[in-house]
Amino acid sequence: MNEPRGEHVFEFSEPGSTAVAWARVERVLRESEMFWLSTVRRDGRPHVAPLPAMWLDGRLHFCTGAHEQKARNLESNPRCVLTTGSNSYRDGLDVIVEGTAEQVGDEAVLTRLAELWLDKLGWPFEVVGGQFRDPGNEAHRAPVFGVTPAKMLAFSKNPYSQTRFAFGE
């Protein structure tokens, strides 16, 4: 992935602040353990769920059971938002990733992702039939989704600064 162009949004930033560097945003995406996935139900109501996600090859990846609400929501509307960051008002970096979720079926990519889940969280997954499977539980399979960013926002604090990252523009 080429480094996206960041635009400092002066209107929503403190005077004297600067744009957030892409390297800092990417570090948050790689190191964060918990994200919040926002999807939309078929009837238009929002749905938000916390889950781990992995940044790999310019996409943010997560898995979920096919029967879970978030998976059913993505069947009818694959557009979603993933957020992560700090719950502190005065410091940290919050990142919002908007995009479209697509199921990942490539065995090589899934194998790399399974290694990330194990290294980062200690969660072992096997790759079976284009999905993750919990070892020791043949029935529990989880499709893996990748979200390619369409738009990304980074909010730094102290001083407060908003940066918008454009992708493919």
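The record above closes out task 2.4. Task 2.5 opens with a second protein, given below.
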Amino acid sequence: MSDEIVLALTAGEPAGIGPELCLQLAAAQRDAGVVVIASQPLLEARAQLLGINVKLHLWQPGMMPKKGAGELSVLHVEGCASFQAGKLDVANSHYVLETLKVAANGCLAGDFDGMVTAPVHKGIINEAGIEFSGHTEFLQELCGVERVVMMLATEELRVALVTTHLPLKDVSAAVTPERITQVTRILNADLKKFFGIERPRILVTGLNPHAGEGGHLGREEIDVIEPALEKLRAEGMQLIGPLPADTLFTPHWLDDADAALAMYHDQGLPVLKFQGFGRAVNITLGLPIVRTSVDHGTALDLAGTGKADSGSLYTAIRVGGQMARSLKSANRKAPNKETSE
């Protein structure tokens, strides 16, 4: 098994900043091998618009990606209908999803050690008549797994979610013992597998203000969350909570924690993004592949201006590479079933 890491990088929405973030990678040497999954003419058009001097090399499985300054390896995907920065085109929607399929299938086939995604525009994909709620759910279906977990992370903080892209009115019904159990098991296992944490210490929020205040502000903590956590603690997990979300994200609790588990999207992610927006990474746990992403959207207003900040993309690539190396290391240490029987 080679120690070289090769990551697939999807360029995202053609009208957004994704293509130019990919092109910015060519400005310097890179530690990890990166293959941009995109329309080559799209990248050429954006490079010309921004005056970026880059040589694009067509890549095929088995080749080592170019790492030198001024060079990028590209796996060309057909179907990009228009290249105009800042102007969405519904005709590009199928192409965008095809880049994700190419990257994920390449990971499943072993051509890539992981995938990194630039932002897509959910609205324009749905306008094309395609049901799409986000990368996380799309990759869950493509990889055929029952449950995945969205986790955002900075150097100082990791926040995972029990529920993701749901209207707030639907969250309480979705916070079930089964869902909490599945999500927490995935989070605990992948903190071990991808981050080398032998026995993760996980903080868990309540759902209601003040974690329900003994049932006076809601009973989900008493009836749903705490019973699920007790069963998981019996499996040996270190779970602290349910804690009030307004005090969980303080040094008193976070200093000794490896991750926080929030019940819904806007309970945990505003804290993380305030703490580290632009240098955070979105990670999908529970997949059979490594997947990381930027922590921001398509930024149509910045597309084509040369002002897009690539900090989050570099973080996503660095973390994706670390996770891929950890997975390779874990696979090496795992006993060979055929030889051990």
